[in-house]
Design goal:
Protein name: GH18 domain-containing protein
CATH class: Alpha Beta
Number of helices: 10
Shape: globular
Strand order of the largest sheet: 1-2-3-4-5-6-7-8
Distance between the termini: 43 Å
Radius of gyration: 19 Å
Mean pLDDT: 95
CATH superfamily: Glycosidases
Strand content: 15-25%
Order of helices and strands: HEHEHEHEHEHHEHEHEH
Number of domains: 1
Low-confidence stretches: none
Number of strands: 8
Oligomer: single chain
InterPro entries: GH
């Protein structure tokens, strides 16, 4: 019965008319793979990318420039060959678009290999890595460290440190986040079990969102088996995020433009169309006048023409 009730609730979240949410506010984004900065791309690829995002609300390109080393440092050789070229060509092809350096790594828990957010020296090196990519010409820093557990104070200290740096440069600090706990204290009861998702409490999400310029919720890998359930889940997540995100922070909802099939992700259910509809329904119900809101496609190298068409038709063009 609890499962049936939850499914019914999600289906109800997916009902209604999303048109009241309007269309893109010009705060959308796309995650781009490492090939854009390591020498594998050329002018023809820029032209193809322009055909995909031209005329849409995409303002930010999160370009994979990492990964970070486990000590927080960043090897310049990872991006040095073509970063300057891509930034220059992207600015030329997409006036007003920001090219952010996507920096990520696995977070250590229980002695496992990875970054230690509680270590001040590691945080200092991550901050230095942010300075490094900004000196290389990137227009901002997009952090994607996983899994950060709800309540991690070291992660908050890291955001405070890096944000002081980005604010001094006049560029954005963006962060990718896990999903928000859909039931009270759910993360504390199941979120840390091996193989389970890592939810954040809504309160902790708000603490993170208040420390950055832009927050992107990774609203995928939910395990939902049907588009209606997945879309309802995204609507629920969007509503929770809208409640917790300051008006001064850009809130983006991640769209699953990839097609892996496993227990955590059913490609037939987790579609760009379902996610976009769910996000729009929540926006229409709870914050239709909010300007600092967008959708973010994950990820360019897996996205199909159908994914791009779904983004454009449901939200991405005015």
């Amino acid at each position: 019965m609890p499962g049936l009730a939850a499914g019914t609730a999600l289906r109800l979240e997916y009902t209604g008319d999303p048109s009241a949410a309007g269309r893109t506010r010009g705060h959308d984004a796309v995650w781009l793979g490492h090939s854009w900065v390591d020498g594998r791309r050329d002018a023809s690829d820029i032209a193809a990318l322009k055909r995909l995002i031209g005329g849409t609300g995409i303002r930010d390109l999160y370009v994979h420039a990492g990964p970070l080393e486990h000590d927080g440092s960043l090897r310049a050789s990872l991006y040095r060959s073509d970063a300057a070229w891509f930034i220059r060509e992207a600015h030329r092809a997409f006036p007003g678009v920001r090219v952010q350096a996507w920096l990520g790594d696995v977070v250590s828990h229980g002695g496992s290999a990875g970054l230690r957010t509680g270590d001040a020296a590691t945080r200092a090196r991550i901050r230095a890595s942010a300075v490094q990519v900004l000196d290389a010409g990137f227009d901002g820093v997009h952090l994607d460290l996983e899994p950060v557990y709800s309540g991690d104070r070291g992660f908050l200290a890291l955001l405070d440190s890096v944000h002081r740096t980005t604010a001094a440069r006049g560029v954005p600090l963006s962060v990718a986040t896990p999903k928000i706990d859909p039931l009270p204290a759910l993360h504390s009861t199941v979120g840390r079990l091996p193989g389970t998702p890592k939810w954040w409490s809504q309160k902790y999400f708000g603490e993170v969102a208040g420390r950055v310029d832009q927050v992107a919720v990774m609203a995928y890998d939910t395990g939902m088996p049907l588009p209606s359930l997945y879309g309802g889940y995204v609507a629920q997540q969007t509503a929770l995020a809208l409640e917790a995100t300051p008006a001064s922070t850009d809130l983006l909802i991640g769209l699953p433009a990839y097609h892996t099939d496993n227990t955590g992700h059913h490609a037939s259910a987790e579609t760009v169309s379902a996610a976009a509809r769910g996000a729009r329904l929540a926006l229409a119900r709870h914050a239709r006048g909010r300007e600092r809101f967008g959708l973010a496609l994950y990820v360019d190298f897996a996205a199909t023409p159908g994914d791009w068409a779904a983004y454009r038709s449901s939200w991405g063009t005015a």
